[in-house]
Specification:
By secondary structure, this protein is mainly beta. It has one domain: Immunoglobulin-like. Helices cover 9% and strands 30% of the residues. The protein is built from 2 helices and 7 strands. It has a 4-stranded antiparallel beta sheet, with no helix packed on it. Strands 3-4-5 form a 3-stranded antiparallel beta sheet, with no helix packed on it. The longest helix has 7 residues. The radius of gyration is 24 Å and the shape is elongated.
């Protein structure tokens, strides 16, 4: 059940209205609120969980990836690369600053064997699935305790 009815005419970013509210504040205040949560696609293959995160404009050296207890953590920084001063902007939508995304993975994984590649602004993380422990049936013999006389 959805809390908010989806419509193709509504903005994709639920925080867009919230951000517009703060546009009247000083640039110094806005600078402290900068940052973003990147979107992600997650899918499974037969032997891995694959996560794709669009990070166009982010230097791969500025990205940290870790996996702890089947939870993926991705964080980093997108630095400003233009020479235009803040006060000269007429309109500003490109997100900059730090970002962080925490994703619970859908199955047990071998985090130490994860592999990531950044190509054309898309970070692709592949994490091998952990081997499933097979259920083993064991027959246990029940002995009857001798009765005391």
């Amino acid at each position: 059940m959805s809390i908010v009815k989806w419509s193709p005419f509504l903005p994709m970013d639920p925080f867009e209205d919230f951000e517009k509210f703060f546009q009247g504040f000083s640039q110094r205040t806005m600078r402290s609120l900068e940052g973003f949560i990147p979107s992600a696609d997650i899918y499974q293959t037969a032997d891995a969980v694959v996560i794709e995160i669009p990070l166009a404009g982010v230097d791969p050296d500025q990205v940290e990836i870790s996996i702890q207890e089947d939870i993926l953590h991705v964080k980093g920084t997108m630095k400003k690369k233009t020479e235009v001063e803040d006060r000269n902007y007429v309109h500003r939508e490109i997100r900059r600053g730090s970002f962080q995304r925490t994703i619970p993975l859908p199955t047990h994984v071998q985090g130490e064997k994860a592999h990531a590649i950044s190509e054309d602004g898309l970070l692709k993380i592949s994490v091998p699935k952990a081997e499933q422990t097979k259920e083993k049936k064991i027959k246990v013999k029940i002995e009857q305790k001798p009765k005391k006389k």
